[in-house]
Amino acid sequence: MSSKKMVNSVEGCADDALAGLVASNPDLQLLQGHRVALRSDLDTLKGRVALLSGGGSGHEPAHAGFIGKGMLTGVIAGSVFASPPVGSILAAIRAVAQAGTVGTLLIVKNYTGDRLNFGLAMEQAKAEGISVEMVIVEDDSAFTVLKKAGRRGLCGTVLIHKVAGALAEEGMGLEEITKRVP
């Protein structure tokens, strides 16, 4: 253990953080073989839209801290400052679809790796017949030069989680939720 950080290892800190969060919160479960945390009551979401988000680790409990009723259904964590892998994102999409949800909205921050990996997973899920849409959050006002990647998604992302979560909780459909957030 480093004297500067409270982690066992950089390589395992994302796994340790998710395992600790799930161990301390009975409303969460891990998807085995992936850095995916999901609501433990997925069976209550039949007929509703699921919301998935995520991104690089290193700021825990960010992303997983936003899972719950009226918020996210689950999150996919990457390594420290790295986007989640396509396979884990696809596994999360499949897991919520198998629970009987009517569609999945991916809430993605405007980082190149996140856009690519969540986008690829979405296309693979659609090819399997799963209803999935994606919204990109780009609220960062610190970037004023928009010629390259554009604004990142930062603190405003949690507001999108909350608005989309409330709409999903009310039973609104995937297409309508997608139109109403960003």
Order of helices and strands: HEEEEHEHEHH
**C-alpha Rg (nearest Å):** 16 Å
Give the termini distance in whole angstroms. 41 Å
What order do the strands of the largest sheet run in, or round the barrel if closed? 1-2-4-3-5-6
Main sheet makeup: 6 strands, mixed
Q: Structural class of the secondary structure composition?
A: alpha/beta
Number of β-strand runs = 6
CATH topology name: Rossmann fold
Text of the CATH class: Alpha Beta
Report on this structure.
Residues 9-182 form the DhaK domain. It catalyses: dihydroxyacetone + ATP = dihydroxyacetone phosphate + ADP + H(+); D-glyceraldehyde + ATP = D-glyceraldehyde 3-phosphate + ADP + H(+). InterPro entries: DhaK_dom, Dihydroxyacetone_Kinase. By secondary structure, the chain is α/β, with parallel strands linked by helices. The chain has a single domain, classed as 3-Layer(aba) Sandwich (Rossmann fold), CATH 3.40.50.10440. The protein is built from five helices and six strands. A six-stranded mixed beta sheet has the order 1-2-4-3-5-6, sandwiched between helices. A hairpin with a 5-residue loop joins strand 1 (28-30) and strand 2. Helix 2 (86-98) crosses helix 3. The longest helix has 16 residues, at 112-127. It starts with 12 loop residues before the first helix and ends with a helix. The relative contact order is 0.15. The mean pLDDT is 90.
